[in-house]
Design brief:
The protein is of the alpha/beta class. 41% of the residues lie in helices and 15% in strands. The chain has 4 domains: 197 residues, NADH-ubiquinone oxidoreductase 51kDa subunit (Rossmann fold), CATH 3.40.50; 84 residues, Ubiquitin-like (UB roll) (Roll), CATH 3.10.20.600; 89 residues, de novo design (two linked rop proteins), CATH 1.20.1440; 61 residues, Alpha-Beta Plaits (2-Layer Sandwich). It binds flavin mononucleotide.
Length: 459
């Protein structure tokens, strides 16, 4: 920050960031230097900066970790950005569910002001810049940049059409640079070590490193920071330590709730913006959910679609109505009530929602459906044509049965059944009353060797 403020011009800073190849870590991967340059060229004053710390993806906590552990990196990055575009004020938008991040960023800002690193005449350079924290109320759509801007302005977090982009017409109609937490945190190192150092990491089009939150059916869960271009296999089986319990890997869902599922045969895919989107997924903000053979891909698509449907702000019809219709069709398929025409309807709706929605939420919401249909069509067909769930997940399509030759009559399943659906006496073979069974799996969980989950093979 000191180097940028005292020894570099705005053009030099932007030149360095552009040369580094840094692209936004919030999802879309827009080149950061280009965004800053667009804002710098705007004549209107004042200009604003925003740090997007909304992080609404379920299971993602990369930005929270940076805000809690290294708030100063974000703060420094923003001062550098402010000098580059000519902004005098910045806002750090953090969701209210992140109390520690809010507290620590507050401390960092107070320290900055006290030490002359924020406020008037920073480091005697004659440059003024100050920061304010805004608490987000925690809706997924608030992370979308135009909705976030509306939220800071005190309005409901509704997105608006772009262009104009925030760099030209942002907060209170003024030129505004909005970047993700991780993007801002990368800035000080690029300025200090130089663009060549940063662009030495990664691939031709995706430079530097990226933080992912690795969760799901994987031995080592947590945050990983990896060079761009690393193969998925190296993340899942190298760093992540593979799949627990000797189960088979099935897919990894990348890019948050509106990302896509990458199957086994694409495990050697390099993790970069272009490869992921070609495969039907996206970098997103960095969520990676690993799934094993016990995951039903229809159920997964339904799970993510329900999330985006509930989080749709409702402003545009394709997203509001389309995601709901898609969820209804998927629920029907998962319940074994789908018809052969449903697959075509799903695809048509998915493409309409993707192309017709106002903001990125609707435009990407169909990704989990489209990618699972692309790579796991046989599972959809099994649900529709055979009324069967191969992964034994969809409750309507499975039956729990006690293996008579293995049952020793220990009463364990009977005692654990919340629906009193198991009949039996000590030391005598127990039987599940299928009419009373609520398919909760409690019996299976306490006695897996003697209880089998089976899926019907005929309608
Ligand atoms: C529904 C939705 C949610 C989003 N949530 C976030 C978020 O939580 N954090 C974030 O940085 N970007 C999020 N984005 C992306 C932002 O709109 C924007 O592209 C980003 O903040 C720009 O910063 P970057 O260029 O550094 O990535 C979201 C986009 C959409 C469509």
């Amino acid at each position: 920050m000191a180097k940028a403020l005292t020894r570099m011009t705005a053009e030099e800073i932007i030149g360095e960031i552009t040369a580094s190849g840094l692209r936004g870590r919030g999802g879309a991967g827009f080149p950061t230097g280009r965004k800053w340059d667009l804002c710098r060229r705007e004549k209107a004053r004042p200009k604003y900066l925003i740090c997007n710390g909304d992080e609404g993806d379920p299971g993602a906590f990369m930005d929270r970790s940076v805000l809690e552990a290294d708030p100063h990196a974000v703060l420094e990055g923003m001062v550098v950005g402010a000098k580059a575009v000519g902004a005098a004020k910045g806002f750090i938008y953090i969701r209210n569910e992140y109390p520690l991040a809010l507290e620590r960023m507050g401390i960092a800002i107070r320290q900055g002001r006290k030490l002359g690193l924020l406020g008037k005449d920073i480091l005697g350079s004659g440059f003024d810049f100050d920061l304010e924290i805004v608490r987000g109320a925690g809706a997924f759509v608030s992370g979308e940049e135009t909705a976030l801007i509306a939220s800071i302005e005190g309005q409901r977090a509704f997105p608006r059409p772009r262009p104009p982009y925030p760099a030209q017409h942002g907060l209170w109609g003024q030129p505004t640079v909005i970047n993700n937490v991780e993007t801002w945190a990368n800035i000080p190192s690029i300025i200090r070590r130089g663009a060549a150092w940063f662009s030495g990491l990664g691939t031709e089009t995706s430079k530097g490193t990226k933080i992912f939150s690795l969760v799901g059916k994987i031995n080592n869960t947590g945050l990983v920071e990896v060079p761009m271009g690393i193969r998925l296999r190296d993340i899942v089986f190298g760093i992540g330590g593979g799949i627990p319990g000797g189960r088979e890997f099935k897919a990894v869902q990348i890019g948050g709730p509106s990302g896509g599922c990458i199957p086994n045969q694409l495990l050697d895919l390099p993790v970069d913006y272009e490869s992921l989107s070609r495969a039907g997924a996206m970098m997103g903000s960095g969520g990676m959910i690993v799934m094993d053979e016990d995951t039903c891909m229809v159920d997964i698509a339904l799970y993510f679609l329900r999330f985006t449907q509930e989080e749709s702000c409702g402003k545009c019809a394709p997203c509001r109505i389309g995601t709901r219709q898609m969820a209804e069709i998927l629920a029907r398929i998962a319940a074994g009530e789908g018809g052969p025409e449903d697959l075509k309807k799903l695809e048509e709706l998915a493409l309409t929602v993707k192309h017709g929605s106002l903001c990125g939420l609707g435009q990407t919401a169909p990704n989990p459906v489209l990618s699972t249909m692309r790579y796991f069509l046989d599972e959809y067909r099994a649900h529709i044509d055979d009324r069967r769930c191969p992964a034994l997940v969809c409750k309507n399509l499975i039956t729990f049965v006690i293996e008579p030759e293995k049952c020793v009559g220990c009463l364990l399943c009977l005692k654990n059944c919340p629906a009193n659906a198991v009949a039996g006496e000590p030391k005598k073979v127990h039987v599940i009353d299928q009419a009373a069974c609520i398919k909760c799996g409690a019996c299976f969980n306490v006695c897996p060797p003697k209880i089998r989950a089976v899926s019907k093979t005929t309608p």
